[in-house]
Amino acid sequence: MQRHVRWLGFSCLMLGLAVGPSLAQPDSPTAPKPVEKSIEGVIVTAPKIPPEKIVHDFVASYTAPSPASGKVARWHGGVCPRVTGLPVSWNNSIAARVREIALSAGVPKAPEKCRPNIDIVFTQNPQGLLDEVRAAKPWMLGYHDAAREKDIATVRHAIQSWYMTQTVDANGGVFTDDKLRPEGFYLQVRTSSAPVGNTFQFPDAHVESWSGSRLGDERRSELMYVLVVVDLAKVDGIKLSAVNDDVAMLSLAQTASFEVCQPFASITNLTAPGCGFKTDMLSAIDLAYLRALYKIDFRDSLIEQRGDLAFEMKKSLGAP
User: Fold this and answer.
1) pLDDT of residue 283
2) C-beta of residue 255 within 8 angstroms of C-beta of residue 36
């Protein structure tokens, strides 16, 4: 079945909105400093294994399923990040770091020449950027009703992300999750009195193949495009290397949990106000989550997926 993909052409929206950096000078913009040890090229902090309840709570609070399928989404193909708003060498370094973390997490490697599917924008005018996105390409905001569009496009956090997803059915059919522009389908019904048939149009629907069981329906959700916006004013004074790792986490795992303090060392705590568990590098717990995300069976139900995420995290961290 044909893939329904809309190539996004985002560059023009960023001109004039991704303004030069006011970010604090990093210790090294091209090579983040190790904290304790390195795992396959990704800098991590050595953790204590958190209690089982904390792992399950983190999975439940941080993981946001795709609104269209109700399942956790991940990249099926490789990631191709594009960074704008900082000096060129810094942009390139940030993109390289995202690819490095993706590779360590188990994300498939993209070709050398690839079409960008992650836009990371450093800007002094984040709301202006999102207003432009909303006006010109609202599907970039993800699966949503038109009535909620203004709220979804409102920038509330120092670093915030928006996700486009697609659903792959049991037969391999791929459908863009776009509530604003559904594909629709036509159904022709023939009867003895109407051999030619009557045609009915269902503009807000499409046909998917399912295979039902309590464990899953053979559908999976995939990330299709991610927009990450960094408010330069709000991250002023934070190490660029730390912002880089937080951006990588957001680029590889769909979430709606921003500035929430997790009760252990995590890069996701970077901009959480008053959080006592901040770290300026991707932690081993963060990496364990990403590796679990790209290891579990994505055809399972959301309940099964969350349970498997927690199980694989604990395995990765060395829990008995």
Assistant:
1) 93
2) no
